[in-house]
Specification:
With 65 residues, the protein is of the alpha+beta class. The protein contains 1 helix and 3 strands, in the order βαββ. Helices cover 18% and strands 34% of the residues.
């Protein structure tokens, strides 16, 4: 299963992001593979617009929301 998450996530560590995704998707971290992360700062933090792009695979047919 492939999912795309867009929004603003402020975190200093990728591990914290993986834990957040684990909780949202209901899978173990070992079953969550992150392929691409794109974080950009908000307009009040710099000249680049806010953006988060995340592509990941989940090793289960359906997420347990």
């Amino acid at each position: 299963m492939e999912c795309v998450v867009q929004g603003i996530i402020e975190t200093q560590h990728v591990e914290a992001l993986e834990i957040l995704l684990q909780g949202l998707c209901g899978v173990q971290r070992e079953r969550l593979r992150i392929h691409e992360i794109c974080l950009k700062s908000g307009p009040n933090l710099g000249p680049v617009a806010s953006e988060v792009r995340l592509l990941c695979d989940l090793e289960q047919a359906e997420p347990s929301w």
